[in-house]
């Protein structure tokens, strides 16, 4: 009878992975598309700033409504950051969160279909805009909580997919005539919320914060986010009277960033890491600033798009870093993301206000002025680079890991201990990055099907990786592999 056992390149028999991991018999793994609901929120944020879709009225009215929404957005994030300890996981307040998102959808419709078309007073427009933004901020933090419970690969793929999904939705809504485009835009937060609650069925809920622990804020990342926001908000000045095109450039930049993330994560995973994301962002920013003096020669659109691309790319990167911090160190996500988002939006708001002030002044955007602006931009970028390089590594804790209130020492979370143990085993046995990732997922009690979904790999590829992993570790079962890293198999 022929020997059907699998052997490696040295001729050693590889252990079978089939008996350890129950999973689907189908060679095709289904990936839940509900996680792309984040793209509906992104689409809502973009559509409400595009005048051909929402509020095709005078510039003053649009600025008033957008200012109200920004203030409501920033204020909500600040309140959530201050009250985070008392609020706990935002997903635990399902009814309240759903009500706030419903108010956001209703406010979007009321502003676009009633208040602005009827030329009601500016105070009413401003007040309703402030209230409308509240649910959007809550929805963002809820999605952050979902992504914080994902592994790095899933987080990057679904994050990039959400960016592409946002662009597709924007394209569909942009083909609609008024008032249908306003109605469609108003429905986006509710649809995103439905996807959100469905997503929580597939990821674990965030653990409540312990009273014995303190969680510092990663201020380095937050400061860089604020500076990036100022640069993004100021960019519209190069567009002059067509500053509203910045919103269109942002959605196109979002699509480009998402598509590149998907391609690299799925087709070139060995070349994709967090450091590459920062390098791309820095390169795009430098190119955009180089073109700033050429705005008078017709490069305004190029500068605007490149700056939006750099900002979107950096924002996605920071969200990935923060989600990875929360995942690895079991950090409460609400305060972390609320502070980061508040600083980012505050930076944009400051940039927009500076842009409006410059537009009303006698400053002429001639070549010397633009060159000075570019030089100032390079200085701000240099400050960001210096702050960034002061951190030891991209995957470090950035000063955000939990600290015991009693001893003042860092306390390792269960997942952090698991990751440290897997990294130690990987160094000892010469595991590849993919094999180390497999070992971590096995230690978390994932089934083979769940590993396929987590890493976006085929059934046969996962089996092969597990066989090679077992051979290197000289183990023959999931229980033995888990015992090696000091956890119980479940």
TrEMBL record:
Keyword Amino-acid biosynthesis: no
Record GO biological process: regulation of DNA-templated transcription
PROSITE patterns in alphabetical order: HTH_LUXR_2
Start and end residues of each HTH luxR-type domain: 424-489
Pfam families named in the record: GerE
PANTHER family named among the record's database cross-references: DNA-BINDING TRANSCRIPTIONAL ACTIVATOR DEVR_DOSR
Name the record gives this protein: LuxR family transcriptional regulator
Species assigned in the record: Slackia equolifaciens
